[in-house]
């Protein structure tokens, strides 16, 4: 009997020592993720590889801490965290682009979400909420050009366009990226908001996004060689007859049909001033990005963009107005 008691006590002591010596057994999920991130820089290779595999298996639960680890002091942690995030991000992006292109009605395709996803291809740390806040702030400045109780849907088209031009081009100084035109970052809405420079299509849809928040009906138009945007005259309260076209790449120049016919070879108003469909707009943005990646020799990134482009184009034949 005494021997059995001693054995039982010895076993209990061993279990207690194991528990005390293995704090990982009692750690929370968040603590486990942080421990595994620290072990990405372990002295032993096998520990680094094991930690990496375990973080990979945790999926979305580890994404936020891994994104934070991209700024870790340790180069090893940063490198391994980035590798994990890129694998997880690619799977996430494939799912998101499939979802983005799934609506049957073109108008239901979320253009701004698509612009965020494209920005994420370039910089995986871009946050959708951050882009929203910056666009909201610009729209608030446009609204401030009018009395507080003004309904901008009832403001004269020319006055609404004038307010957009003042805020975005006179004050904020948005314009085309001329010196660095083929740089892939010019396809990122985040980069455009930060530097105030970008490609014609990105700048145009920045104007569209800000205008929509201010209840001003601006649409993108796929003019050959120079994407622009215009006031949708079908929604103008004062029913003007002259088109109000903005050239954001040219610093917000107000263009007339005559000017466009003079400057754009083959320009046809009835064709090229039609609102660009959302899917076509995003496909054009992705085509620009892929082309720029090829131009700088980043073929793997270009192939990834082509993959997303194919996912978005997959159901294009079923689009309804």
UniProtKB/TrEMBL annotation:
Chain segments annotated as transmembrane: none
Any matching Pfam family: Transglut_core2
Record domain Protein SirB1 N-terminal: where: 131-286
InterPro entries named among the record's database cross-references: ARM-like, ARM-type_fold, SirB1_N
UniProt signal peptide: 1-26
Alphabetic keyword roster: Signal
Gene3D superfamilies: Leucine-rich Repeat Variant
PANTHER family: F-BOX ONLY PROTEIN 21 (PTHR31350:SF21), SI:DKEY-261L7.2 (PTHR31350)
Family indicated by similarity: Belongs to the UPF0162 family.
Protein name as annotated: Protein SirB1 N-terminal domain-containing protein
Organism encoding this protein: Lignipirellula cremea
Source taxonomy: Bacteria, Pseudomonadati, Planctomycetota, Planctomycetia, Pirellulales
């Amino acid at each position: 009997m005494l021997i059995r008691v001693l054995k039982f006590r010895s076993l209990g002591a061993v279990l207690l020592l194991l528990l005390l010596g293995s704090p990982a057994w009692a750690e929370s999920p968040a603590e486990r993720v942080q421990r595994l991130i620290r072990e990405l820089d372990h002295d032993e290779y096998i520990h680094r590889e094991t930690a990496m595999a375990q973080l990979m298996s945790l999926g979305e639960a580890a994404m936020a801490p891994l994104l934070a680890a991209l700024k870790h002091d340790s180069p090893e942690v940063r490198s391994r965290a980035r590798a994990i995030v890129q694998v997880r991000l690619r799977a996430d992006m494939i799912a998101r682009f499939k979802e983005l292109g799934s609506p049957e009605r073109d108008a239901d395709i979320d253009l701004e979400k698509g612009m965020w996803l494209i920005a994420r291809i370039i910089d995986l740390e871009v946050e959708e909420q951050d882009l929203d806040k910056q666009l909201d702030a610009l729209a608030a400045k446009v609204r401030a050009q009018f009395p507080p109780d003004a309904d901008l849907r009832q403001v004269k088209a020319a006055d609404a366009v004038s307010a957009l031009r003042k805020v975005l081009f006179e004050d904020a100084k948005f314009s085309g990226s001329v010196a660095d035109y083929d740089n892939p970052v010019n396809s990122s809405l985040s980069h455009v908001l930060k530097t105030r420079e970008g490609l014609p299509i990105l700048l145009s849809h920045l104007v569209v996004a800000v205008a929509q928040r201010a209840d001003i009906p601006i649409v993108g138009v796929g003019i050959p060689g120079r994407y622009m945007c215009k006031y949708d005259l079908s929604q103008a309260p004062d029913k003007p007859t002259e088109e109000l076209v903005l050239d954001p790449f040219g610093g917000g120049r107000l263009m007339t049909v005559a000017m466009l016919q003079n400057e754009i070879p083959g320009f046809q108003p009835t064709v090229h001033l039609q609102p660009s469909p959302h899917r076509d707009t995003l496909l054009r943005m992705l085509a620009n990005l892929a082309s720029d990646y090829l131009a700088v020799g980043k073929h793997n990134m270009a192939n990834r963009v082509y993959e997303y482009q194919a996912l978005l184009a997959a159901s294009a034949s079923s689009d309804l107005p």
